[in-house]
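Kindly go through the entry underneath: sequence plus fold tokens. Please state briefly how this chain folds according to its tokens.
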Amino acid sequence: MGLYRPLLAMLVLLLGVFQLTGGGDKEPEQRQAFIQFLQNTVLPGRAVNGSPR
């Protein structure tokens, strides 16, 4: 049991580091893609988000 606890702690720390570094901020790209989807598919001919077509 003496080796189990430090290995578990290192694994949890490693997973935490991967979780924090793995996710980039893709929100602006996703927002633009969604606006294009709305303009081309759902609301053709209408302005979305106040931007003229």
